[in-house]
Amino acid sequence: MVTSRTRQESPAERITAHDRAHVFHPWSAQDLVTPLAVAGADGAYFWDHDGNRYLDFSSGLVFTNLGYQHPAVVEAVREQAARLATFAPGFAVEARSEAARLIAERTPGDLDRILFTNGGAEAVENAVRLARLHTGRHKVLSAYRSYHGATGTAINLTGDPRRWPSDQGTAGAVRFWAPFLYRSPFHSQNAEQECERALQHLDDTIVFEGPSTIAALILETVPGTAGIMVPPPGYLAGVRELCDRHGIVFILDEVMSGFGRTGAWFAADHFGVVPDLLTFAKGVNSGYVPLGGVAISEEIAATFARRPYPGGLTYSGHPLACAAAVATIDVMASEDIVGRARRMGAEVIGPGLRALAERHPCVGEVRGLGVFWALELVRNRETREPLVPYNAAGESAAPMARFTAACRASGLWPFVHMNRTHVVPPCTLTESEAKEGLAILDEALALADSDTE
Predict the structure, then answer these.
(1) Res 6: pLDDT
(2) DSSP letters along 214-270, please?
(3) How many whole angstroms separate alpha carbon 348 and alpha carbon 432?
(4) Cβ neighbours of residue 101 under 8 Å, at least 6 residues apart?
(5) What sign has the CA pseudo-torsion 156, 281, 70, 415?
(6) Which residue of 6, 66, 250, 330 pairs with 70 in a disulfide if CB–CB is 3.0 to 4.6 A?
(7) Is the pLDDT of residue 1 over 70?
(8) Cα-only R_g, the chain
(9) Which residues face 45 on adjacent strands?
């Protein structure tokens, strides 16, 4: 008589089963998501429990600027945990003060005071609060093509459709069109026209909203999830001038674009513009421990010299997160990671993507800086019709789903949003790794070509 044995569950099956039973996933219909069970990661790669390895062209969610498991950052967290694992934010702690000093050394202008948060959305929340208290005004201007986070104020300032279910129209948010020449809302023919017309539109918006009612204007220096649209020359300087003219606090959101991502410490450095407030997170410590913050100008900091700032977080400037930030910044400085990202974009990724565009009719535009790029995929290059409709889901999003599946089947993990694939690998990517990823994109784009007209 043969007795049957119950097959032992594999690690991936066990992890996935527990995940499906107990983890509530963000931005997902819970019954329709089956996350990949990850076994490990190193540098620009991660792998599953079946041994499938993926080159990560998404940097997690665009945060592993130093790649996975960088030994210096891992060791810094380990040492800090042994020395002082946690402490309340009202005390002076070496890791916290050193992280603040190193960040302030690299922020543009006089943004020398750092309010630490746990992530980017909380940074935006506090930046807006600082601006409102500083000015005594309430409205905040933000762009339609933008993403600022999922907390209450941040999601209402966000321009993309993730805002819609949470937008009650009561957050004081006023949206405007920022420049985007490829899909110009101003019918511009060149970058100069786009800059001039976008600034005029913004000026008109301010005038008709009432300058005395507007506390702040927030922009992603280079928008991330919304499409990596590098602003035309002169635009950010023009926004700075409008804000100065009307006493509006200028906030630059560098949660995604900061800390080397664009080939500069901050994307603002490319444009010679100094905001009043600058938000950061993600790359500040490669996402090893949650950390974000607001870099604050001298003028706004002075508002709270004798007046308490009414805000705070239990884990503000957590020692483990700050130790990871110190190590990350030290590595970036000693190994010239910022210069490496700049060169990778100029010499390998940018030329490689433009070569792909020449071969594939589905590529409408290539744009980016450093290791921060997007391919705009279209059905028709002449009409610029997107490969999938705006905010497509289900069958209407099938062409992008097929493209994504093709990338993953060949060992590339892409960052796909709407009709775009973003190329946002770690800043430490090597030339050979970049070429490996570009070759896989080449194959997947050939599949997307079949959906063009």
Answers:
(1) 59
(2) EEEEEEESS-TTTT--PPPTTHHHHHHHHHHHHTPEEEEE-TTTTTTTTSSSSGGGG
(3) 10
(4) none
(5) positive
(6) 66
(7) no
(8) 22
(9) 42, 55
Distance from C-alpha of 217 to C-alpha of 139, rounded to nearest angstrom = 9
Please provide the DSSP assignment of 301-349 as one string.
Answer: HHHTSSS------TTTT-HHHHHHHHHHHHHHHHTTHHHHHHHHIIIII
Structure tokens at 439: 């070759």
- Token pair in block for residue 53: 């390895």
Q: Cα-flanking dihedrals φ and ψ of residue 423, to 5°?
A: -110, 95
Neighbouring-strand partners of residue 34: none
Task: Please answer whether residues 135 and 215 qualify as being in contact, where contact means their C-beta atoms are separated by less than 8 angstroms.
Answer: yes
What are the structure tokens assigned to 415, written together? Answer: 């960052």
Tokens of 73: 């950052």
User: What angle, 0 to 180 degrees and rounded to 10, lies between the N-to-C axes of helices 319-334 and 71-84?
Assistant: 150
Nearest to 143, CA basis, from 74, 222, 59, 75: 222
Task: Look at residues 353, 360, 375 and name the one whose alpha carbon lies nearest to residue 447.
Answer: 360
Which has the closest alpha carbon to 376: 336, 423, 408?
Answer: 423
Query: Is the pTM of the predicted complex or chain greater than 0.70?
Result: yes
Residue 5: the pLDDT is 53
CB-neighbour burial class of residue 143 (10 A; exposed 0-12, middle 13-18, buried 19+): buried
CB 141 within 8 A of CB 219: no
Q: Encode pLDDT of 155-195 as tens digits.
A: 999 999 999 999 988 879 999 999 999 999 999 999 999 99
Distance CA 426, CA 41 (A): 13
3-state secondary structure of 378: strand
Model confidence at 3, pLDDT cuts 50, 70, 90, reads very low
Encoded amino acid at 445, one letter: L
User: DSSP label at 289?
Assistant: S
CB 372 within 8 A of CB 364: no
Token pair listed for 344: 């990778």
